[in-house]
Design a protein that fits this description.
Chain A: It comes from Actinacidiphila paucisporea. The complex is a heterodimer of chains A (about 325) and B (about 250). Chain A is mostly helical and about 325 residues long. Helix content of chain A is about 55%, strand content about 0%. Chain A has a single domain, classed as Glycosyltransferase (Alpha/alpha barrel). In chain A, about 50% of the residues are buried. Chain B is globular. Chain B folds into 2 domains: about 140 residues, no CATH class; about 110 residues, no CATH class. Classes of the chains: A mainly alpha (about 325), B mainly alpha (about 250). Chains A and B meet through helix 10 of A and helix 9, helix 11 and helix 13 of B.
Chain lengths: ~325, ~250
């Protein structure tokens, strides 16, 4: 099962109150909205996986990080409860047996199962099946999205399967590995970079997992990206950038951006993906779609920043 | 309102004309440059355009000094300075811009004995290159604490507004201060391009080309080409990007 022990004590984060308020509010909202994460009966057939499996997998991935790393026991417990809920929704992993049988060479069932396997939540039938499917030459055919391939490699590692490609070689071909001109980043490329980092650091658990030149590249340009997307009020991406910052050695802390993100959080804890919170009268479904990912990301980013302990002085701060 | 809009439009057109002429001169026709030749007529709009572009109106002289030809232009500059002095509540940027034009005139168009001769057909008659009654323009002492204290977005914005002061030998203290914040200026370049603020990006780029230790990953040279093309070859952007090419490096450090 999941490990529940508190992380080792470190020097307190100077912005702990703000970070804990963001994380607690976000987990409250996610907890209140958990019904919207429930999988429909037709999840393996007709339902849109982007509205069913994807949110549940994200819930499991990000709640797991909070459950493992947050220094506040109450928040770890709330996150553990959400992770247990997600596993229950997969019927203890039986869902993945059905998904792999339905699409034997699709990567997403393996990627999703890997999230739970990382937490020690396993199903022998799934492992037998994916042992057969992922040993095929077919499984090693290159995929067009290198960032996604990193996630597949991570899932293989988590499940204990042999890696189908070399992680560092794939990373070198991603939008992060190629270190593109920082001014040429669009939204899609930005999400690619944040996920390259999450995969390379096992979602923030191994901050040293990034090659030094890539960490240096991010340290240099994250302040500019965080600022410009905060100006556009794209809170989802701002949250991901703040999480990335906490994945770097020394965890540089962008105090101004955290203030802005915290201000975008609604009183009920929801963080809108973009712009303002859904207006009063919005249906729960609309509110869920508009806020679930960014709210999960806010809890995740706040957890990583908090768990990193006392940060380095921010790169972007004016010299006195 | 309509009259104001008309004046603004006339000023924009005059600024574009002068910027275009300066950029062309920097691109290889500096030998024949004359600011006075770029001004359709020397009216208040033309003098305002000179003040808007600041030291850049004399940038071609920084490539090739030609004091004899410059006498007329020195007087044009002097009239522009006199017509639009900084107000009592002028911002630091406004004061620096004014001072930059004063410094550029002194640095690139030093007064010579030839001025008296030149003055016979150029308007100067006092043997000092000035007009009758024209006093030396005041040299304000603008604040520069912001170079150390501004958060990077504000710093880059101000630096861009003062891009003309990146010309060689102007405002050396400002250049040294900004060189100490190269990473922050580089972040400002990123932000400006992301905002499609091509003028700001090009202006910041001018400081960056002469800064030490610009991060390789910025891709500055490609960035300046990108900005120039994306701006649709806006004359002020082209002026900045051309100046960035013509005056690379060479800082006082």
């Amino acid at each position: 099962m999941v490990s529940g022990g508190p992380p080792p004590a470190r020097r307190a984060h100077p912005d702990a109150d703000l970070l804990d308020t963001v994380a607690a509010g976000a987990l409250d909202w996610i907890g209140a909205m958990r019904g919207s994460f429930r999988l429909p009966a037709d999840v393996t057939t007709d339902a849109d996986p982007n509205l069913t499996l994807k949110p549940l997998g994200e819930l499991a991935e990000l709640a797991q990080v909070t459950q493992a790393l947050h220094p506040v026991a109450a928040l770890r417990e709330a996150a553990a409860d959400l992770l247990a809920f997600a596993w229950k929704e997969t019927r203890g992993g039986e869902l993945f047996v059905e998904l792999v049988r339905g699409e034997p060479v699709a990567t997403y069932p393996v990627e999703l199962y890997g999230v739970f396997a990382r937490a020690g939540l396993r199903h022998p039938g799934v492992e037998e099946l994916v042992g057969a499917t992922t040993s095929l030459r077919r499984w090693r055919v290159a995929r067009e999205d290198h960032t996604r391939t990193l996630n597949v490699l991570n899932a293989e590692r988590r499940i204990g399967l042999p890696p189908h490609a070399d992680f560092d070689t794939v990373l070198a071909h991603t939008g992060l590995g190629l270190r593109p001109e920082p001014w040429a980043l669009d939204r899609k490329a930005a999400y690619g970079i944040t996920h390259d980092v999450f995969h390379a650091t096992d979602w923030g658990r191994t901050p040293g997992g990034l090659p030094a030149p890539l960490a240096g590249y991010l340290r240099l340009w994250l302040p500019a990206w965080t600022e410009t997307w905060a100006e556009e009020r794209l809170w989802d991406l701002v949250g991901e950038f703040l999480a990335v910052s906490a994945c770097l050695p020394g965890a540089p802390y962008d105090l101004a951006a955290w203030r802005v993100l915290a201000a975008a959080q609604a009183p009920d804890g929801a963080v809108p993906e973009t712009g303002g919170v859904p207006p009063p009268g919005a249906s729960p479904g609309e509110a869920f779609t508009a806020c679930y990912h960014s709210t999960l990301v806010a809890a995740f980013a706040a957890t990583l920043a908090r768990a990193a302990g006392h940060p380095d002085p921010p790169e972007s701060e004016a010299t006195p | 309102m309509a009259e104001q809009a008309q004046q603004n439009s006339a000023l924009s057109a005059a600024v574009a004309d002068v910027a275009n002429g300066v950029a062309l001169a920097l691109d290889g026709e500096g030998d024949s440059y004359a600011l006075s030749a770029l001004l359709a007529q020397e009216d208040t709009v033309a003098l305002a355009a000179v003040r808007v572009l600041g030291a850049d109106v004399l940038a071609p002289y920084a490539l090739r000094g030609d004091p004899a030809r410059g006498s007329t232009d020195r007087q044009v500059v002097r009239r522009a300075l006199a017509a639009y002095p900084p107000g009592a509540d002028a911002s630091d940027v406004s004061l620096w811009s004014y001072r930059g034009l004063v410094e550029a005139s002194r640095a690139f168009l030093p007064e010579t004995g030839a001025d008296g001769v030149d003055g016979a057909d150029g308007g100067g008659r006092d043997g000092e290159g000035g007009e009758p009654g024209a006093e030396r323009p005041p040299e304000p002492r603008p604040g520069d604490a912001w170079v150390q204290t501004d958060p990077w977005p504000a710093l880059a914005h101000r630096a861009s507004q003062l891009a003309a002061l990146s010309l060689p030998s102007l405002a050396p203290a400002l250049a040294v201060g900004l060189a100490a914040r190269t990473d922050d200026l580089a972040r400002g370049f990123v932000r400006a391009v992301r905002r499609r603020d091509w003028l700001q990006a090009a202006g910041v780029g001018r400081w960056l080309v002469r800064a030490p230790d610009v991060p390789d990953s910025l891709g500055l040279a490609a960035g300046l080409v990108f900005v120039r093309r994306m701006s649709g070859s806006d004359p002020r952007v082209v002026l900045h990007t051309t100046a960035a090419q013509r005056f690379p490096g060479g800082g006082p450090w």
